[in-house]
Structure prediction request, 1027 residues.
Amino acid sequence: MATGTHGATQETAVRTNVLVRALIYSILIVFAVYYLLPLYVMLVNSVKPLDEIRQGNMMAFPQLFTLDPWRSAWSTAQIGVQPTGLKPYFINSVLMVIPAVAISTLLGALNGYVLTKWKFRGDGLVFGLLLFACFIPFQIVLIPMARILGLIGLAGSTPGLVLVHVVYGLGFTTLFFRNYYDAFPTELIRAAQIDGAGFFRIFWRILLPSSGPIIVVTVIWQFTNIWNDFLFGASFSDVDSQPVTIALNNLVSSSTGVKEYNVHFAGAILAALPTLIVYIVSGRYFVRGLMAGAVKG
Amino acid sequence: MKLSKLMATSALVGGLALFSAATYAAEEVEVLHWWTSGGEASALNVLKQDLEKAGVGWQDMPVAGGGGEQAMTALRARVTAGNPPTAVQMLGFDITDWAKQGVVADLNDLAAKEGWDAVVPPALQAFSKYDGKWIAAPVNVHSTNWVWANKEIFDKLGLKQPTTWDELIAALDKIKAAGYTAVAHGGQPWQEATIFDAVVMSTGGPEFYKKAFIDLDSSALNSDTMVQAFDRMAKLRTYVDDNFSGRDWNLASAMVIKGEAGVQFMGDWAKGEFLNAGKVPGKDFLCFRFPGTQGDVTFNSDQFVMFKVGDDRRAAQEKLASAIMSPSFQIAFNKVKGSVPARTDVDGSELDACGQQGMKDLAEASKNGTLFGSMAHGHAAPAAVKVATYDVITAHFNGEMDSKTAAAELAKAVEGAKQ
Amino acid sequence: MSVSQGMPVAADRAPIGRTSHTMEWLQRALPKIVLAPSFAVILVVVYGFIIFTGVLSFTDSKILPSFNWVGWENYTKLWGFRNWITALQNLAIFGSLYILLCSAIGLFLAILIDQKIRIEGALRPIYLYPMALSFIVTGTAWKWFLDPGIGLEHTMHLWGWESFHFTWIKDGKMAIYCIVIAAIWQSSGFVMAMFLAGLRGIDNEIVKAAQIDGASNFNLYRRIIIPILRPAFLSVFVVLAHLAIKSYDLVIALTNGGPGRATEMPATFMYSYTFTRNEMGIGASSAVIMLMMIASVIVPYLYSELRGGKR
Prediction:
């Protein structure tokens, strides 16, 4: 079923003449400029020497092209007392984001599977309660969460951060998979059961292989949210587990001293690179995945 | 259920812990601070190296943002988790607030051995000590009632250092008439409050300052003198350029450095910006006290508060405190930071002209009893009161209310935030 | 009806295995066992913590939680604060503009992109990427851009348009609209993707039938396509509404609540009282109000969602 809608492309398109098409294209391009503007400003100014930024036009191309700000942001900029650049923090983020995304996606898939294919009395309420978790303001959980992390000995560690991100990501991952599996024909599951397949076997062999699009959506969603998180990272991390967003903030919002805007912009782009790549590479699958379930009712 | 889930998660991520877990050396300190870049970070690096020479490792825990706001949030999480850092950079009443929670260490033995009581000004000790116990090691003293002026503009217009409010206004008028921005200002609540500190001190004198901001006396807060102080703020507002709001203070300093603006009212950390730009005090720029506050000093002081840690980390903690208080570090650090040492017995001849004057003023004010904590920087009243006064000062400065209303609102806001 | 779907089948399987009673029970309970840990954890870390916050809102907690009961004092104080009222007003302005414009722009772009656009593959990531960036990253760029001294206004002057005037971010009354502009920049592409997904999911037969009937393009969208997108609208609304109520880093990065306190929002208010003003009790009471606002948006949605689920 999931494939049925994919094949048909853009049949909702209306019949139009050349003039209208030209108008459509120009509107779309104007919007593209609006979306690209901040990135352009960051990019252009990250390859200018500081003096040129201070005196010049922020929209202008660099007169003197330099990659020094990038080198500095990556490996030599002063962050805290160490001139390490963003590199070590980048690695911390990777170590945090990969298990957190993997675990929360897997749990979301299992939860969605149970909630749609193994219904029980009160499943609606359970789902509702899980879903509401997406919407709480995270500031309120900082103090009690810190206490719990301290009690279980995960305070200030990467596993602690992974745990927090998994827990608060469950609502969304469950939502995505539940909506997706809801449309998956239950007959297939029954047929498999009659053939003697158990709970996990059905999941691994039947549901998971056809979950491609929704896994993409979930992974993109979780990856960007966790990678970009600042609040949890600032509160629950330690010397060896500070993620890159914290380091970037340390780099750009120092209280005194010369503001090296070019280094700040280079650092900002570096810190955003993984999420940017994820979006650009998988943008197509993202819409497809949304189509296949995430936006339904 | 919860436990099994947690255990499962822990097991899954356990492998990672092997990669990221710290290998704790025998002696280590973990320091939470927000001096995350530029000169202050390298100044702190001096401390790190001093400690490493003494065989103590330094675990750096920088969290920047908003004058330590993010760092305080992180600290709360750490303390709640039962995993406090060894030492935390802190300001003013935050220190006292944390001391009340019973989570800070007692440094009395070390302080007695090194004689801190004799060398640290009593006004600072009010924060470094709680309940008779030393809990923090002060690094520096900033004074906030400074004026930074572009000497070239002053020379060109034939201006002298103003010493009274009227002279200041006359000077600002001339600068404005000559086509410069008279006052370089960044429109952030704390910057407006910094100016307000000086204006109140200048308008009402040290007694009034103390009554209003330290004793939080309603009759002083809602008085004619306070209305006059607000009027003066409104007057200063007319010398600011249109583009001031939200500007960082260092960009305002840059305006004076580049000769676009005449003066900036800012604490002595601004000096670092001038020095970094290769400017020389007395030759390229002038530093003098806010007119009408000569002899008085409003200060803030960065201190490292020592938290209660296990006995195994205690020795390293004491070494850290001792290193912070050592005269050589105090000089090395403050040369970079623009402030003056927290101990009055060190030789200041290595400091520049402004720094030396700062040391002299500090010692004098401390002797005369005119050394007061800065309201704007949380050294006059607790955070809740501080921010409540910010609200009123900023609202008034941005033209949301007149001076009379502002004084009444100020008294009301302070009353509401007082504990 | 829900009972008829899954469980009984599992029960049917048991005799084939001819296993012990325990195994049978395990087979039956397995789905619940799989779900239970997530549920239990959420109960504690979401609902437990909400209750904890609720309790704190009635105490005199300052720097760390305390349990000194003070009744409704924090709430009465809260409603007396100018800042809190400003924050609510700003949320009303921001929330309505943000949700309305984001949906409108998102839908508009989705419809345009759906017109067999050749460069769709290039445009889509461009529209989507702002969602991928944190405001810690783009905040500086936007601040620059909106700043009259170095940003757009300055650039226009350099390009010879001397009379160009754009100082909203410095103006207490207009600064909130700057936040709206940046917020729309961040989320409208994502909304576009959601609508696009909705459009692509529409059955072609319906559209063709309408076209054969001679419906004009405008009417086709107004009468047929947009009504079909109703579920997408609902999802978009929920996503945007909760982003609006929770908007925090955006405000911090762009204006930090300024000029003055003109762009204070409930989330920044709550954070500042809890963590910088050491008034945890008041912070908690504002959090409770925020939770109630969020619940008033989400619970009806959840309710209809779950009822809709039981076809």
Notes: Chain C touches chain A through 116 residues (CB under 8 Å). Chain C has a mean pLDDT of 82. DSSP finds 14 helices and no strands in chain C. The radius of gyration of chain C is 25 Å.
